[in-house]
Specification:
The chain has 163 residues and is of the alpha+beta class. Helix content is 23%, strand content 30%. The protein is built from one helix and nine strands; from the N terminus they run αβββββββββ.
Length: 163
């Protein structure tokens, strides 16, 4: 009682085996691609979803103007970093003069923030600068006020609002 002889391999069996191997490879590639996609999505959610933005309520904005259609400048204050970004839009500096920014808190005397340049600049804020208040721009001698207080006329002003 010997076992019957194994059937001889046929071309049909060989073709079926080759198709199965190809299908297995294809599904492995699909599974690997899906795994990479899932890993990338998980990484994005875990790391990329975080933004290095300050805590809510720490950014303030003032559109500073003189009543015209175009603002003179836009001032953005970030209390978390203690900086102000000044973006001149339509501010016109008289020849031989400087435009100086001032912060005016409730019932306080004006505090110099810095000079308005021709392009966007970032300025460190004085320690006394709070988030709410008024922003004024005065015409000063070249380089700014000589005594730490406004000496020229206010040409632009605006109110800080929470972003």
């Amino acid at each position: 009682a010997s076992a019957p002889p194994a059937p001889a391999p046929t071309a049909a069996n060989d073709d079926r085996a080759i198709r199965l191997v190809r299908q297995v490879r294809r599904w492995r590639l699909v599974a690997a691609g899906t795994g990479l996609l899932a890993a990338g999505l998980a990484l994005f959610v875990a790391v990329g979803g975080r933004r290095d933005e300050p805590a809510p309520g720490t950014r303030y904005l003032a559109v500073v103007q003189s009543g015209g259609a175009l603002p003179a400048l836009v001032l953005r204050i970030d209390t978390a970093t203690g900086t102000a970004e000044v973006r001149p839009v339509g501010a016109e500096t008289p020849s031989g003069k400087s435009l100086e920014l001032w912060y005016i808190g409730s019932g306080a005397s004006p505090k110099a923030i810095g000079l308005v340049g021709a392009s966007a600049t970032r300025i460190a804020l004085p320690a006394e600068t709070a988030a709410s208040g008024l922003i004024a721009v005065t015409v000063e001698p070249p380089g700014g006020s000589p005594n730490g207080a406004p000496t020229g006329p206010v040409v632009y002003s605006g109110t800080l609002i929470r972003e």
